[in-house]
Specification:
Elements: H1 3-14, H2 22-28, H3 37-53, E1 55-59, H4 66-80, E2 93-97, E3 101-110, E4 113-121, E5 123-125, E6 131-134, H5 135-143, H6 151-162, H7 177-199, H8 214-227, H9 229-235, H10 237-247
The protein binds zinc ion.
Amino acid sequence: MGWLGFFRRRRLLRQPIPIHWYPWIDAYRPDVLALPSHLREEVLRRAFVMVAEKHWEGCGGMQVTEEHQVAIALQAGRVAACFPDEYFPEVLSILVYADAYVARTQQPIGGGLYIQQETPRSGEAWYRGPVIIAWNELASELRRSWPPRNVVIHEFAHLLDMRQGGQADGMPGLPSRELQSRWAETMPASWRELQHKCESGEPDVLDCYAATSLAEFFAVASELYFESPHTLRDTWPIVFENLNAFYRAHPSSLP
Ligand SMILES: [Zn+2]
């Protein structure tokens, strides 16, 4: 960050959270209002800076309002809150579609040939590229309490994961060797356990999309960690412990 950015950030951090934000906080991330005051302040500060500093762009005719920005930034702020000075500097732009959009991808099929595929998406995160969010997907996830999903948390979890070499592999930068080895031992085992459950049709709190790769396992488990921490702790206690050691977003003993 240059000097200009540094002074702008410092000025932002001194400003009060706008009063008209509070109904939106209540609508889109009400748990923040119940957090201990220092943690609440961290979430709101992260959201405030991200709303001001990111380039927000509506796609496919979407008009992005301040309310949309606040709703999205609050989710990202919740993920970032316990990492010092975390504002996702690698994300310059946040693109917002009204609804799920179609992404065109190329799949190699050998011999230098590719097939074009069109897949509907509700969000995407690109290494040093934009984050893309479908607004209606997020809004409907936030309106219902079950299943607990959150596309913004999912994509920002991928971003943290991608910082280790640009590829998401389900193992973000962890603060200690001890946690690294516990993670390497227990997360793949939990992921395989979920794969078995999905293959045998056994329902689980983790969506079977999490079984597709270790990176998706980490991103989907992160959604549950923030959206329904008790559920994750009670059903996947080791996964909860690992995520809590990484995000540190919940007190060690949940009420
Ligand atoms: Zn994903």
